[in-house]
Specification:
- The complex is a heterodimer.
- By secondary structure, chain A is mainly beta.
- Chain A has one helix at 2-28, and strands spanning 52-57, 60-63, 71-75, 79-88, 91-100, 116-119, 125-131, 134-137, 140-155, 158-174, 177-190, 195-197.
- Chain A has one domain.
- The radius of gyration of chain A is 19 Å and the shape is globular.
- Chain A starts with a helix and ends with a strand.
- Mean pLDDT of chain A is 87; it is low at 11-24.
- Chain B has one domain (3-158, 169-220, 235-262).
- Chain B contains two helices and nine strands, in the order αββββββαβββ.
- An eight-stranded antiparallel beta barrel of chain B has the order 1-2-3-5-6-7-8-9.
- The chains are: A mainly beta, B mainly beta.
- Chain A binds chain B through residues 20, 23-24, 27-28, 30-34, 48-50, 66-67, 111, 114, 150-157, 160, 163, and chain B through 56-58, 67, 69-70, 113-114, 117, 121, 123, 126, 128-135, 185-187, 189-190, 193.
Chain lengths: 198, 271
């Protein structure tokens, strides 16, 4: 009887612990959108893990939403793919940056990318844009992706996720017309639910 | 017109009307009565969350839903009581007073990350590679002070047994008893870090506290008897900066109840 009681209490405690952890993770994966007063329609640049991104595609804001997971990081053996998912007006848009090179084995290891600058014209860089289901591989005229800051986030003294913040901008061709993606900024919390390695 | 000038000006206009409305006097102007005031009341203070408190959400957002960035609510509760001596000049139906006043104040920050999560994230540590949040149920700051008020009260209009008056005053803190922050964590496992967190999130606050206030009031009772008064503070101002750890409070209003006792044989004008 005593053993059953101990087992019951243990299961209950583990369940409670797991519930708390899940709640914490869920809240930190939510979006906090604070509009930039200088660049209307875009979120401010932040380093809080607000789970937002935004950029102008010419003059149209392409931004993260409340209901889509704004980023997924996929690490292969030699390439890191960063998929930004959001909206441009009514259109669903994915922007994928693929960076060839050493890749992190877990989201905690993303810290290695702190203060990293990628010239998007270099070999081994690829940018794709998927608008309403149609994917276009972009020919980059010029541009950069800057991972400005990567921090490990501890919540109540326990490692929770990694915050990755930075900027991007580039010029490319879209529908045979040159366009500028400008004022790009992102602030993501990367954790179990949006980091993949395979 | 500048807000800060409006109410003092209004006060002096009312005061002037009050003085002009006096009847003929039979006593020398300087002949006065001695009154003892007992007062109690509350300041209604509202302020902005201090910018150096690092809270992970949009603090200007006022809605909590499943998708919203949550809500942070600052609340301030104050109470005061005091005892004052007034030298009342019947010639002007006015008086000056001073005394001692105890003020108790509690600032509280409560936050909801979303509709179902009754906590907010507070960043208490930040280095190049690591940042630390604590899940906070509430932040509470308690402040107690003993202040010295100095007030001018001007009668505006008097019926039998009813006196309308305007008042202006300043007060300055004589002693600050306590200015401490208490943290209520969402998880009790954080309690061992309580003092460290308090140190991390608070900077030294001002050790002085001063206000300027004005009010309109009504008192009931005959001149030579006990009077009961109700005062409504007009928008008033905190004169010192950086008074609290959690909130920046610049303005306040409030309400006061007082009892006046004549403490010597009362001298009145012929009316």
């Amino acid at each position: 009887m005593k053993k059953i009681l101990i087992a019951f209490v243990s299961v209950l405690s583990l369940n409670l612990l797991f519930s708390c952890q899940k709640m914490s993770d869920y809240e930190l994966s939510g979006t906090v959108f604070i509009e930039d007063p200088y660049y209307p329609g875009l979120p401010i640049y932040s380093e809080w893990g607000y789970n937002t991104f935004g950029a102008y595609i010419d003059r149209k804001p392409f931004i993260s939403t409340d209901y889509d997971l704004p980023v997924k990081l996929i690490a292969n053996s030699d390439t890191l793919h960063m998929i930004f998912r959001g909206r441009m007006g009514q259109k669903s848009v994915d922007m994928t940056f693929s960076i060839k090179g050493p890749t992190p084995s877990s989201y905690e290891d993303l810290i290695e990318l702190d203060e990293t600058n990628y010239n998007l014209q270099d070999t081994g860089r690829l940018v794709k844009l998927k608008i309403d289901g149609t994917t276009t591989e972009l020919r980059i005229i010029e541009g950069e992706l800057k991972i400005n800051r990567v921090q490990r986030l501890f919540v109540d003294e326990e490692l929770s996720r990694t915050i990755m913040s930075g900027y991007f901008r580039f010029k490319t061709f879209l529908y045979d017309e040159p366009v500028a993606i400008s004022q790009g900024r992102f602030d993501f919390g990367i954790g179990y639910e949006n980091f993949y390695r395979y | 017109m500048n807000n800060k000038l409006f109410f003092p000006l209004l006060f002096f206009i009312f005061g002037f009307i009050g003085l002009s409305a006096q009847n003929e006097q039979s006593l020398p102007w300087y002949t006065g009565n001695h009154l003892l005031h007992l007062e109690g009341g509350s300041y209604f203070m509202g302020g902005d969350i201090k910018e150096d408190l690092s809270i992970r959400q949009n603090i200007s957002y006022y809605e909590a839903s499943q998708y919203s960035p949550g809500i942070i609510t600052p609340e301030t509760k104050t109470y005061l009581f005091g005892i004052k001596y007034e030298y009342h000049l019947p010639h002007f139906n006015s008086g000056i007073s001073t005394g001692i006043r105890f003020i108790g104040l509690q600032n509280e920050l409560i936050g909801y990350t979303s509709r179902v999560s009754r906590f907010f994230y507070l960043r208490y540590s930040e280095s190049d590679s690591d940042t630390k949040f604590a899940r906070i149920s509430s932040l509470i700051e308690n402040y107690y002070a003993l202040t010295v008020p100095f007030e001018l009260r001007i009668g505006l209009y008097q019926f039998t047994g009813i006196n309308f008056f305007a008042k202006a005053g300043v007060e300055y803190s004589l002693i600050n008893f306590k200015k401490e922050v208490n943290i209520q964590f969402q998880e009790e496992t954080m309690m061992p870090y309580h003092n460290m967190l308090v140190q991390e999130i608070t900077d030294p606050a001002n050790t002085h506290f001063a206000t300027f206030y004005s009010s309109l009031g009504i008192s009931f009772g005959k001149n030579d008897k006990i009077n009961f008064a109700l005062e409504v503070l007009l928008p008033s101002f905190v004169l010192t900066d950086n008074n609290f750890h959690l909130l920046d409070i610049k303005e306040f209003d409030g309400i006061k109840l007082s009892v006046y006792f004549p403490v010597s044989p009362f001298k009145t004008n012929n009316r």
